[in-house]
Amino acid sequence: MTESNGTTTASNADGMPRRSFPVAFIYILNAIIGAALAIPTLIYLLVPPKGRKQSALVDAGDVSQLTPGVPVEMSFQVSRVDGWKALTEKRTAWVVKHTDNTIVAYGPQCTHLGCAYHYEEATKKFICPCHTTYFSIAGEVLSGPAPRPLDRYITKVENNRLMVGALKPVDGSKA
Ligand code: FES
């Protein structure tokens, strides 16, 4: 084919310049790559993330063998959705069966600055080693800097299984 400026380009059987095919291919490839990058970006920007969602109650274990007045540390798995991620985390609770058979599950962290506390058999108290707060097995602050009683999980007992929900602070702050 001879163009008005005197140059000659090759044509295929349809009369389309031979150069058009690679150019069209590059445009299509660009469009595919652009879409592959744009779609996830648009989803990220336009679809609101799900809030933190924790499943209601989880099975923390058998409580039929607990001895009244003797705290036991129990662990359990919690599944939650944070944004686009589904996470499973290990949690623990100090579980106390009282003499009236009520069961309380305390959060594992001291209410002062969040250190892990433990049960001291000799004194029959919970002690936080960080700044020496003592808590009773009812969760109350006996001495030390902790400003409020131990936090408690929402609990329910079903067929001797302890079902554990969200962790809630207990009112009873020091003035
Ligand atoms: S963190 Fe427990 S007493 Fe300070």
Listing every helix as H and every strand as E from the N terminus to the C terminus, the arrangement reads HEEEEEEEEEEE
- Give average pLDDT, whole number: 86
Number of strands: 11
Backbone shape: elongated
For the largest beta sheet, what order do the strands appear in spatially?
Answer: 1-3-4-5
CATH topology of the largest domain: Rieske Iron-sulfur Protein
Report the biggest beta sheet as strand number plus sense, adding barrel if it closes.
4 strands, antiparallel
- CATH-defined architecture of the largest domain: 3-layer Sandwich
Name the poorly predicted regions: 1-10
Compile the SSE list and pairings.
Blueprint: H1 20-46, E1 50-54, E2 58-62, E3 72-83, E4 85-97, E5 103-106, E6 118-120, E7 125-128, E8 133-135, E9 141-143, E10 152-158, E11 161-168
Antiparallel strand pairs: 1-3, 2-11, 3-4, 4-5, 6-7, 7-8, 8-9, 10-11
This protein binds FE2/S2 (inorganic) cluster (FES).
Structure description:
By secondary structure, this protein is of the alpha+beta class. 15% of the residues lie in helices and 38% in strands. It has a four-stranded antiparallel sheet with strand order 1-3-4-5, with no helix packed on it. The chain has a four-stranded antiparallel sheet with strand order 6-7-8-9, with no helix packed on it. The chain has a three-stranded antiparallel sheet with strand order 2-11-10, with no helix packed on it. The radius of gyration is 32 Å and the shape is elongated. The N terminus is likely disordered. The structure holds FE2/S2 (inorganic) cluster (FES).
